[in-house]
Write a structure and sequence with these properties.
This protein is α/β, with parallel strands linked by helices. It has seven helices and ten strands. It has a six-stranded mixed sheet with strand order 6-7-8-3-9-10, sandwiched between helices.
Length: 266
């Protein structure tokens, strides 16, 4: 299957007073249409930079980013984004916060259809009845649910999640993991998740990309076999334990705390 997202030899550096600071170096990632890839790696290795490059908010110094077989040269209306901080506007109701992207991104929906879609999404994430509330009247987990709805309101082909659950308590985080599976089933998209939580990566994604230390390269790819609906119990199977051990070891390698395993002799 041809990838919907392709990162080809991407290099990028930030300009600082001390000179260029390389963050990505020859990065290679491919995400098939309908796939869900999680990206993990040491802090500061360029994971958030990667999301901005995919969304077209930044341009790489070298290499190419492709979506739908077209090179990304600027922001794309087919991309939705959700961040660790929901950044909801306090002077707007939850419903109007969710509708905000449609005031910016071209849409074929009329006002009634747009509102119906917003209410449908809010009901999917358990926020039916909270449409007229202000953000300050909702818990952190509820605000993040509204943020997910806002990211999906314009029916994007690609959903980028930059540590959206990182600031939440463990119970709320796990609840939202289940919500993500429900959203994926009802609102198909190709997903890219940035996370520091290895359990989150194997529960939500079908591929986990481990980045090396800065400047980051693609160090390791872990395929996560899935069949049927997911349950939190899946995180406590021997298969999940093996996957987590592999990822922990790869993170230790990326941090310089473990030596890479020797390559097998030909």
């Amino acid at each position: 299957m041809k990838p919907l997202i392709e990162i080809k030899g991407v290099r990028h550096a930030y300009q600082t007073d001390a000179g260029p600071l390389p963050v990505l170096d020859g990065l290679e990632i491919a995400v098939p249409e309908g796939g869900f890839s999680a990206v993990v790696g040491p802090s500061g290795c360029g994971k958030s930079t990667l999301t901005r490059l995919i969304a077209g908010l930044m341009k790489p110094d070298a290499g190419e980013v492709w979506l739908h077989g077209k090179r990304v040269r600027g922001p794309r209306a087919t991309v939705g984004m959700a961040f660790q901080n929901p950044v909801l506007l306090e002077w707007r109701s939850i419903l109007k916060n969710v509708l905000l992207p449609l005031e910016i991104v071209p849409t074929k929906l009329n006002r009634k259809q747009a509102e119906e879609r917003a209410r449908f999404l809010l009901s999917l994430v358990g926020l039916e009845g909270f449409e007229d509330k202000r953000p300050s009247e909702l818990s952190g987990g509820m605000r993040q649910r509204a943020s997910l709805c806002r990211a999906l309101i314009h029916q994007p082909d690609v959903l980028i999640l930059d540590e959206p659950f990182g600031a939440l308590d463990a119970f709320t985080r796990e609840d939202l993991w289940m919500t993500m599976h429900e959203l994926k089933a009802r609102e198909p998209f190709t997903g890219v998740l940035i996370t520091h939580d290895l359990r989150e990566s194997i529960f939500l994604a079908d591929q986990v990309v481990v980045l090396s230390g800065r400047p980051a390269r693609t160090q390791y790819l872990l395929d996560v076999p899935k069949s049927g609906p997911r349950s939190l119990d899946d995180l406590y199977t021997p298969e999940a334990a093996e996957q987590l051990n592999i990822l922990r070891h790869q993170i230790q390698i990326a941090q310089g705390r473990a030596a890479p395993e020797p390559e097998a002799a030909a």
